[in-house]
Amino acid sequence: MIETLVLLGRSGISQLQELGKAGILLYRVLFFPPNLRKGFPLILQQTYAEGVLSLLIIVVSGLFIGMVLALQGYHTLAKFAASQELGPLVALSVTRELGPVVTAILFAGRAGSAVTAEIGLMKATEQLSSMEMMAVDPIRRVISPRFWGGCIAVPLLTIIFNAVAIYGAYLVGVKWLGLDSGVFWSNMQSSVEFRADVVNGLLKSVVFGVAVSWIAVTQGYDAHPTSAGIANATTRSVVYSSLAVLGLDFILTAMMIGEW
Amino acid sequence: MLSQRFVESLVGIFLLFAIAALTILAFKVSGLTTLFPPKTYTITAAFDDIGGLKVRAPVKIGGVQVGEVTNIDLDPLTFKAVVSMKIHDHYKDIPDDSTVGILTAGLLGDNYIEITPMYNKTYLKEGSQIEYTQSAMVLEKLIGQFIYKLGNDNPDKNKENGEQHAHQ
Question: Do B29 and B61 belong together in one domain?
Fold first, then answer.
């Protein structure tokens, strides 16, 4: 009985410790920013590795999600003789929810896991320690660029995902199912608000970008320096990021709908 | 390892791509047109009942949109609803004896304002008020009146109703 309690307490303390470590890491990343002249190329390189190289998966999944949404939505709306409302349906669900959430989850799988594995391996092979030996701060040289690269990449990817998904829906709804193109766009324009829908969606994606990058970087930095430890860290990075994105999405949506 | 210059240009293309997508989202999807607002002048009109009229509802002449509602306020003395609307400068020769009414798009659609031009040679300008207004038709009131009339079945009332119908 006492044993179980002790175990519970121990695991609680270690969880809190990890959270504290993650907080300290975030603090160091945020308040000791990389030197602008030296750090900028590094951030750019990470934006390339995390953003540009994720472009393919984002574009392809955006296209297919838009197309599926149009197909499903059309057949449901047609039952109520409201198929001309397909444009608003797709545009609102993509800009408000699907765009930010799906992009962040795909990003966690495509780029977040890679960042975790890379940093974890650097730690396991003692590259981080040798940097410290050479008086190079590994946080500024390795962690910070990866964090900022992710923060920049996620909102940009979300914008692209949104646009591609809506064109995917256009492709199915107008070109295949024969909806009128003018009705499709004009209904969409009259019900989508730039500030309330598009900008709020982007705000979400900024938060998700920070959360996913933070989790990926933390898991890599705190990984046990063994092969099993890196495998664990990578798994946890993806799982935690996905859960954090879904949880944050609920909170943010509640705040935004409540006229925050 | 790619050269830094190549990586930078790829990131630049990525950024341009995202900006292009944002422009599409702004203009094509959300119909944002107020980035460079066209020149307008503001006129007002006082209504007894505006029904479900909302800010940003279209103002039309002959079905063509010429402006939009900018503000709805209640006059504290007369208890009339004062609707401010901005009209594009493009349409500045609207006679000042025009009538303005609140109509409904379709049977159950949104309310909009329709201006019916008359024949005066003086025109509406910034700040002027339209005198001749026509309140919104509220469906509940219409139905209420209809039922009220059906209920009054005494003969002379019926006759009066019949005359009214003949007039209409």
Answer: no
Q: What ipTM was reported for this prediction? A: 0.81
Please judge whether B4 and A45 are an interchain contact, meaning their C-beta atoms are less than 8 angstroms apart. Answer: yes
Judging contacts by C-beta atoms under 8 Å, the chain B residues touching residue A45 are: 4, 7
The helix, strand and coil proportions of chain B, stated in percent and rounded to the nearest 5, come to 30, 30, 40
Task: Measure CB to CB from residue A189 to each of B2, B20, B30 and give the nearest one.
Answer: B30
Model pLDDT for residues A60-115, shown as the tens digit of each residue:
999 999 999 999 999 999 898 888 889 999 999 999 999 999 999 999 999 999 99
* B139 alpha-carbon distance from chain centroid: 18
- On whether both B30 and B61 belong to a single domain, the answer is no
Establish if B16 belongs to a structural domain.
yes
Find the residue in A nearest to B57 (Cα): A190
Instruction: Note if the pTM is more than 0.90.
Output: no
Would an 8 Å CB–CB cutoff place B30 in contact with chain A?
A: yes
Instruction: Answer yes or no: do B121 and B61 share one domain.
Output: yes
Do B82 and B138 lie in one domain? The reply is: yes
Dist. CA B23–CA A169, nearest whole Å = 18
B158 inside domain? no
Instruction: Tell whether B55 lies on the interface with A, counting CB pairs under 8 A.
Output: no
Helices (H), A80-194: 86-93, 99-107, 113-124, 127-133, 138, 144-170, 181-191
Q: Are A198 and B31 in contact (CB under 8 A)?
A: no
User: Which residue in B22, B28, B30 is closest to A159 by CB distance?
Assistant: B22
Residue A141 carries which side chain, given as an amino acid letter? R
